[in-house]
Each structure stands twice: as structure tokens, then as C-alpha cells.
Specification:
Helix content is 63%, strand content 1%. It has 318 residues and is an all-alpha fold. The chain folds into two domains: 6-35 and 277-305, no CATH class; 41-270, MazG-like (Helix Hairpins, Orthogonal Bundle).
């Protein structure tokens, strides 16, 4: 787990310099790009499901996590992945690592901070994909396993598919994230991660089409109006999305389990349970409120210092 050095926010208040604050935050971001290899990881998709379920429950967010809402959030994060490759050059030969300020192959190059950002967006998509599967009572692990079995049938024969339906309160079957990486490496041979972002948008569109053709009430938990072919179609697409996320991660030598674990750590810091409980506001709303309070405290501190200095000068003149 990365240990970020602590600092005294009062320094910012006293200096009242946005440029210094921005510089300090930039330094922290660069530091974060050099995280230790000891960062926690998640080994199975069921680990992600449990972590997401606990995260939501601790913040009383279940009421916001309808399938329609989660799908919209997932589509938004797929767009965030696409944005990582926006305005980049040709990536058919793969990504090129570079340091900040390096102009060589700049359009095809990714700085360490950009690679971290790609990992964060992949983690976001995977977390929302996990939540969507969970609230729809679909076993994402079984869906991915079925996809792998369909590709690796013995003697040309497909192995029987495992049921993707799960009862309320039950966990998922076993699917190791390393197997997801291996399958993606075997099946997704393109070196350009931009192509995977295109395919992710296509898959997100397939999922959206399953919801767009029916009233929202039919998409409420537990989707009672859906028939088996609807659930089967959804399971196939969510498995495809998971594989494409792994393929994107592979292009940058990122571990999906590790970037998800890191994202949960960051989200816990951005959304403290006691602060955000029962609210769907974005973290920037809490940050803005906190910053307003800190600036008020800084103004008081500056006034006290000015008063003390004035008193000192007056005392010397007397």
C-alpha cells in the first residue's frame, strides 16, 4: 500500500497561494505514480464484488444503485477510458513510455501519470461492471468462465455453460483475475489500446440496448420482467467488457486486481463513509465545502497574526 507523506494544511491557509497548492498536489501525484510493488491486490472477481458491496453498504448508497443508474455510470467511465487515447497518435505498434517533457514520439507516448490514469479508469469500469452484475443477480465470474470455456473447448467441443443466475445473498463462483488477463492476452492481439476503447464503447452500447427498449420499471431489481435470453445476452456482454478491460490493462502492463484495489483505497479517501452517507453528491462537492471551511480558518489565522503584529508594533512605539 502506498504511503503518501503527510503535510500540514495550515501552511496552505497561511500562504493563501493557489499556485503553491497546485504544485504540491502535482508533486503528490508524481509520488503516487511511483507506488510500491507491495500495493494490495484482488485475486478473484468475487473479491471485487464483496469490496464493492461493502463500500456501497457503508455509505448507504444501495438506494442509488439501480441497474439503470449503474449502467449510466459504467457508460460514463467507458468514455473516460476513451478520453485517455483522445488526441494521441497512431498506437498500432503499442504504447511508448516516456517521462514528462520528453517530446520524442509524444503523440504515441504515455507518461507514468497517464498510465496510472488509464489504470484508474479501467478500475472504475470494472467496479461498476461488478455492481451492475451484482444488483441484476448475475454471476460475472461465471459469465467470464463461460466465455473462456467457449474458447477452450476440448476436442472442438464446448464445455457446458455454468448458470449465470445467482440467488439473493449468494456469492459468485470462482474466477481468478489472472485467468482473465491470460484470456485477454490470447484473444485480444491488437497492440493499440485505442481499439479496445472502441470495442468497449460498442459493448456498452449493446448493454444499453437491452435497457433502452423497455420501461425503467422492468429494469428494477431484480428485473422480474426479463426472460432467460435477456439475462444470457447481458451476461455475454458483461463478460466481453471484463475481457476488454483486461486487454486494455495488458497494453500498459497493469494488473487489474491491483488497480482495482488501489482505486478502492482512493475512493475511500475521497468518499469517507461518515461524510457521504446517504448522499449521491460527487466528491468535489465535499472537497469544495471542506476547502471553504479551511479558507475561513486561514482568514482567521491571518487576521490573528496581523493583529498580533500590529499590537507588537504599537507596543514598541509606545
Amino acid at each position: 500500500m502506498c504511503v503518501v507523506p503527510t503535510y500540514n494544511a495550515n501552511y496552505f491557509d497561511l500562504l493563501n497561494s493557489r499556485k503553491i497548492q497546485a504544485l504540491f498536489i502535482l508533486i503528490l501525484n508524481v509520488y503516487e505514480c511511483q507506488e510500491s510493488e507491495q500495493t494490495d491486490t484482488m485475486n478473484e472477481l468475487e473479491d471485487v464484488r464483496k469490496a464493492a458491496e461493502n463500500f456501497v453498504r457503508e455509505r448507504d448508497w444501495e438506494k442509488f444503485h439501480s441497474p439503470c443508474n449503474i449502467l449510466l455510470a459504467l457508460c460514463g467511465e467507458v468514455g473516460e477510458i476513451a478520453e485517455c487515447f483522445q488526441w494521441k497518435g497512431n498506437l498500432d505498434n503499442g504504447v511508448v513510455a516516456c517521462e514528462p517533457g520528453d517530446s520524442k514520439n509524444a503523440q504515441a507516448a504515455f507518461t507514468p501519470a497517464e498510465v496510472v490514469h488509464v489504470g484508474e479508469e479501467v478500475a472504475d469500469v470494472m467496479i461498476y461492471l461488478t455492481r451492475l452484475s451484482d444488483v441484476m443477480r448475475l454471476d460475472l465470474a461465471a459469465a467470464v468462465s463461460n466465455l473462456i470455456r467457449a474458447t477452450h473447448g476440448k476436442n472442438g467441443q464446448r464445455e457446458p455453460a455454468v448458470s449465470v443466475h445467482m440467488e439473493e445473498g449468494c456469492g459468485w463462483s470462482s474466477c481468478i483475475i489472472a485467468d482473465l488477463h491470460a484470456h485477454a492476452a490470447e484473444q485480444c492481439v491488437h497492440r493499440s489500446p485505442r481499439r479496445y476503447s472502441f470495442k468497449l464503447m460498442t459493448a456498452a452500447g449493446k448493454l444499453t440496448s437491452l435497457f433502452a427498449s423497455r420501461p425503467e420499471g422492468e429494469c428494477s431489481v431484480p428485473c422480474q420482467q426479463w426472460v432467460d435470453r435477456d439475462f444470457t445476452a447481458a451476461a455475454e456482454v458483461i463478460a466481453e467488457v471484463a475481457v476488454l478491460c483486461a486487454a486494455t490493462a495488458n497494453a500498459f502492463a497493469l494488473d487489474v486486481g491491483q488497480v482495482i484495489a488501489r482505486k478502492f483505497e482512493r475512493n475511500a479517501a475521497k468518499y469517507p463513509a461518515q461524510t457521504v452517507r446517504g448522499s449521491s453528491a460527487k466528491y468535489t462537492a465535499y472537497a469544495a465545502a471542506k476547502a471553504t471551511g479551511e479558507e475561513s480558518g486561514g482568514a482567521v489565522a491571518l487576521a490573528l497574526l496581523a493583529g498580533a503584529a500590529l499590537g507588537f508594533l504599537l507596543a514598541r512605539r509606545g
